Each structure stands twice: as structure tokens, then as C-alpha cells.
Amino acid sequence: MLKIDQNNLPRHIAIIMDGNGRWAKQHTMGRIRGHKKGAQAVKTTVTACREIGIQCLTLFAFSSENWGRPNEEVNALMSLLADYLDKEAPTLQKQEIMLTTIGDVERLYPSVKKKLLEVKKLTEKNRKMVLNLALSYGSRDEIIFAVKKMISDNREGKLNVDDIDNDTVGSYLYTNNIPDPDLLIRTSGEYRISNFLLWQLAYSELYFTDVLWPDFKKDDLLTAIAVYQSRERRFGLTSEQINDK
Ligand code: IPE
Ligand code: IPE
Ligand code: MG
To answer: Which residue among 7, 8, 18, 86 is the active-site one?
Structure first.
């Protein structure tokens, strides 16, 4: 198994889990079977991150645009999510993982919303890792929502325009309380962000792999982390400035 540096782990990994449909096609199955297999990869990745010692894992599971997919597929994704929550709640609890979400969860099916609330409540005191699911999530929606809230807080005298800085904007986003991702992984050989964490990815390291999400294994995760560790994050400074610190 690939060796990684335990002293330079990404604190927060975000993953765009893409390629379930193409995986299914490759295996001459329907798309829904691909999503089922994708749910397996979610379980192994969560456990792998917990074992490695990652503090926060954000998984892009359903985008605001994914509501436009055929009804049958949306229904199947909602029931897979409910299933995942049912079956994995005890494991999350045992592994001391706290479940959180970002996105417009109000839009989710009522049965899913109810389960989400239950599992969030059950795991809220867990501190070993945060599993943050992006559900009905769109980054532009998130930013619009933040702008509206800032304007209304300003009108109510709770927010002064001159005080607005990076941290203020960050605190109005769904990801308030979560550090920005250090590493973004996208599977399936697509090289785009697809409306994911536009603000928060400002200085994340991006890693793209051709592996389709249902085939993503612990070794693929370790490879992504090793690549991350081989990079120099400069945040706009020079290499000398970084190394002299
Ligand atoms: C990712 O796989 C899962 C979701 C977007 C819900 P896709 O369903 O997008 O798979 P491809 O891109 O069609 O292969
Ligand atoms: C992004 O994948 C959303 C999720 C992984 C949940 P999509 O498959 O929806 O993205 P596009 O349409 O290829 O950009
Ligand atoms: Mg896709």
C-alpha cells in the first residue's frame, strides 16, 4: 500500500463522485445499478478517510442541477440516500463520525429529510471526523442565498457593509464552520467543477482521475493524497517565501 506522510494530510478532502452512469454502461447495466455500486464506494471511502485520519470529507452526492434528471433516476437516488442513512448510521456512530450536510435540503424528499435529521442528531457529538454530504447543492445558489441574507441582516442593522471581509462571506455560506477543502478530487475523467464550492475552492489543490466513481478504492485515495503532498501550496507567495517560513 502506498505510503503517505501523516504529518501533511489534507485536513479537508472534497470529492465530486462522478461516473456512475458510465460505469453502468460499461457493465451493460442501467444507470441505477451504477448508483448502487457508487454507494458502495461511498462506504469504503468514508472508512478509508477515517482510518487515514482525515478530519473532514465532503461528498458531492446530488447537485441542484441533478433534479432535472429523469424522474425514475431522481427517485432511485433519493431512496439510495435513505437506504445509506439507514444502514450506515450505526457505523458512523461506531466510527465517531459526525454527519452534516450542505445544500437546499428542504427540497429533498420528506422521508429522506426525516432520516437526515435523525442521523445528524444521533452523530452530532462525534468528533473523529466530519462527513459532510452535499445534497441538492449548487454553489451559485449558495452564494445567492448568502447575498440575500447579508442584505437582510444589513437592513436589520446586524451587518455593517464596511465590516464585510472574507470571513464574513464564508460565515454566510453553508460551509460555515468547515475549513476550505485542501484537496478536491473529481473522478471519471471530467475536468470541471460543475457548480461545486466555487468560493471555498479558491486555493484547493485539484486532482482529476479517470477512475469511475464505483471503481474508486482506498489506493486511489492514497494516490490522490500522495500527489497532494508532492505539491507546493504557495497562496500567491514565492517558493522562497514559503520555504523560509
Ligand atoms: C455521479 O454519476 C452521480 C450523480 C451525479 C448523482 P453520474 O450519474 O453523473 O454518472 P455519469 O457522469 O453519467 O457517468
Ligand atoms: C456533478 O456531476 C454532481 C455530482 C457528482 C453529484 P454531474 O454528472 O452532475 O456533472 P456534469 O453534468 O457532468 O457537469
Ligand atoms: Mg456525471
So the answer is: 18
